[in-house]
């Protein structure tokens, strides 16, 4: 718990800085003000109640030998202890309702983002923009394992943060693909459960560019503590430039996927993918380094079983050094590398695996 909180805020906090944060949005500030108002009301009530209690214990202690009071109902007192709490509750309900109305602002948004929780990463989809990606943890686990026991701070970084523009109303539509997660960024005062089959809605409007951090906050399995949220808020110009780049990337990928590939082209591309990702263990010759890194040349899976072959490349092989490449390779690169391997060491026909398989 302690480690989780430290890592969340990512920087050294004074040991007594235990209060909630005011955050960086109108909503987060009004949530903070409400929190402080209710806090002080509770402090005053607590001081009064405990004050009277302690006073009574001392003033009426046994050595005083006072006679206990003996009386029946007292209308005045009963009315008072009904009316005063009622006034206090109404006094708290007014600002609480005002804050709730602020949070549930139904007006049109400028940017809509679908957020999906997975075990254990977030997926962001910019609705109407054809831009979507996973946000994967990149902080090495051994670094975390080294620092955490010493109580040192570490940052949970991701490969692709959620990027949003300043000044715009950004709507989040939050759901999950497997189990219940929860998307939480304290500085934005956004915290919503991500539930499979449901869409929860929230929004934010951030004025200052910056990196704002959060974490999954619903226990969701083994790596619950390692699915950080990183929000990168940029000026509208920087955001537009980023979005343009992302769209160009997506368009290029779509073009590659729908293109009619010839066998030679695909094999050539696959060879490059193989050189980058596979050669270190399986060798350029495909002979591997048995027994740790099996030979692909002449292997049953490479020659005959395309499905099993794809499955291993995408998901890796648990208990071995074979990593999952599903997140790193596009559909085209996946088809290319498998076609290359089949062609180099597989059946003589050199059958092609198309990106749409
Ligand atoms: Cu996802 Cu906890």
From TrEMBL:
InterPro entries referenced in this protein's UniProt entry, alphabetically: CcO_II (IPR045187), CcO_II-like_C (IPR002429), Copper_CuA (IPR001505), Cupredoxin (IPR008972), Cyt_c-like_dom (IPR009056), Cyt_c-like_dom_sf (IPR036909), Cyt_c_oxidase_su2 (IPR014222), Cyt_c_oxidase_su2_TM_dom (IPR011759)
Enzyme class label: translocase
Residues forming coiled coils: none
Keyword Transport: yes
Cofactor(s) needed: Cu cation
Record text on cofactor binding: Binds a copper A center.
Keywords: Copper, Electron transport, Heme, Iron, Membrane, Metal-binding, Respiratory chain, Translocase, Transmembrane, Transmembrane helix, Transport
Catalysis: reaction(s): 4 Fe(II)-[cytochrome c] + O2 + 8 H(+)(in) = 4 Fe(III)-[cytochrome c] + 2 H2O + 4 H(+)(out)
Sequence intervals crossing the membrane: 38-58, 79-97
Major subcellular location class: membrane
Domain Cytochrome oxidase subunit II copper A binding positions: 108-245
Ranges of residues in domain Cytochrome c: 265-345
EC number from the UniProt entry: 7.1.1.9
Record carries keyword Lyase: no
Subcellular location: Cell membrane; Membrane
Stretches assigned to the Cytochrome oxidase subunit II transmembrane region profile domain: 12-107
Membrane topology (UniProt): Multi-pass membrane protein
Function according to Swiss-Prot or TrEMBL: Subunits I and II form the functional core of the enzyme complex. Electrons originating in cytochrome c are transferred via heme a and Cu(A) to the binuclear center formed by heme a3 and Cu(B).
Family: Belongs to the cytochrome c oxidase subunit 2 family.
Name of the featured protein: Cytochrome c oxidase subunit 2
Source organism: Stutzerimonas xanthomarina
Taxonomic classification: Bacteria, Pseudomonadati, Pseudomonadota, Gammaproteobacteria, Pseudomonadales
